[in-house]
Amino acid sequence: MFVKSQSFLFSVSKLFHYHHQQWRGMGAMTKVRLKWVKNKNLDHVIDTETDLKAACILKDAIKRSPTGFLTAKSVADWQKLLGLTVPVLRFLRRYPTLFHEFPHARYASLPCFKLTDTALMLDSQEEIIHQSHEADTVERLCRVLMMMRTKTVSLRSLHSLKFDLGLPDNYEKTLVMKYPDHFCFVKASNGNPCLKLVKWRDEFAFSALQKRNEDNGVTGEDSSYREFKRGQSTLTFPMSFPRGYGAQKKVKAWMDEFQKLPYISPYDDSSNIDPESDLMEKRAVGVLHELLSLTIHKKTKRNYLRSMRAELDIPHKFTRLFTRYPGIFYLSLKCKTTTVILKEGYRRGKLVNPHPLTRLRDKFYHVMRTGFLYRARGLGMVSKEELLLDRPEDDLEEEGSEEEEIVEGSELEEDSEDE
Fold first, then answer.
1. I need a labelling partner for 106 at 20 to 30 A (CA). Which of 9, 255, 359, 371 fits?
2. Is 417 helix (H, G, I), strand (E, B) or coil?
3. Whole-angstrom distance, CA of residue 236 vs CA of residue 213
4. 249-260 vs 278-294: helix axis angle to the nearest 10?
5. Within a 10 A sphere around the Cβ of 205, how many other Cβ atoms?
C-alpha cells in the first residue's frame, strides 16, 4: 500500500473542492479540428536517431554475446525490431567505424561483426555516465512507476522505453536489483513479469511543468506558481504553434479555455474526475507531457505509450490529444512509424537541455556518419582521435528557422497500429 503525505492529500482535496463550483456548470470547451503540420527539423531528428538507436542496440547485443561478435545470420530477422528500412547486414556494413567485419572461422562465407576500438571506447564512456548519473536514472524510473495506476509496469513495456529513458542495457540486474527499497519484480495476473514501485516517494511527486513554473517564479519571471500553490490559479503549458495557428481566433479561444482549467499533477489521484470531462482531457495531456519530459530525447514512439495506456489512465484514442494540441506535441510520421515529440524540448532541431547521455550519443552518431563518408576512400584516412573529436557544426544539417509546413489534405489515422 502506498501512503502519501498528509499535506499532499490536503492539497488534492482542496483543489477539487476549490474548482467544483467553478466548473460544474460550464459547458465543454469549443474544440477546433486542426490539420497536421510537418516540421522538417523535428522530422530530421527522427531520421538520424532511428539509425542511432539501431546502432546502439546492435552495439549492446555484440557486447552481450559470449563470443564477442554476431553473425549476419543471427541478426538477419532483426530489421523490424531495429526499426530499419534496410536489411541489417547492409546497415552493419554502412558503419565500419563501429562494426568490424570479418569471416567466420569455420564458415568463410558467413560475415561476422565485432566492435571496433572506437566503439569500445564510446561504450566505456557510456558506462561512466550511467554510473555517475545513477541517482538521476533511479529517480526517473520511480517517477514513471508513480504515474501508473497500480505503480506497476510490464518489463516488456519498460524494455521498449529503455533507450528513450536512458536506462543501462542490463538495467534489471545493474540498476533494479541494487535498489530493493525502490523496486521489486512481480508477476501480473496474466503471468507477465513486471516492475513495481516498493514505496511512494513524495520527493519525486513533482512534475516537470511544476518545476518549470517554480524555477520561473524564483527568477521572478512568473508568479503563477506561487498563486497555484495557494489554490488561486492554474499552471499553463508552454506552447509553440505552427505559423499562422496561434493567431487564429478560434484556436486562441480554445487554448485560453484549456489553459484556464485546473492543472492536475500526473502524480495525483484522478479517480474522482469525470472521464468524459475537459478536466480529464487536460489531466491526460499533463500525463503525456510528464512522460515525454522523463525521456532523455523528449520523444518516444506512439506504440510504446499505447502499451501503457490503461495504467496511465489515458483515453483509448489518445493520439487525438497530440493532434488537438500541436502547440505542445509534434507527431512525426518518419521512418514508417509514428513518433511523438515534446516541442518545448527542442529549439531549431536541437535539444534545449541535453542529458550527458544524449551528448555521448551525438558523438556516437558523428562516428557513424564519419565512417559512412570515409567508407569509399578507406578508413586509414581518419584517425581514432579525429573520429572522437567534437564537431558541433556537424551535429545536424544547417540550422534553419523552426518552420512548419501545413500539408494540405494530410489527415492522421488516429490510433491505428504502426507498421
1. 371
2. coil
3. 9
4. 90
5. 19
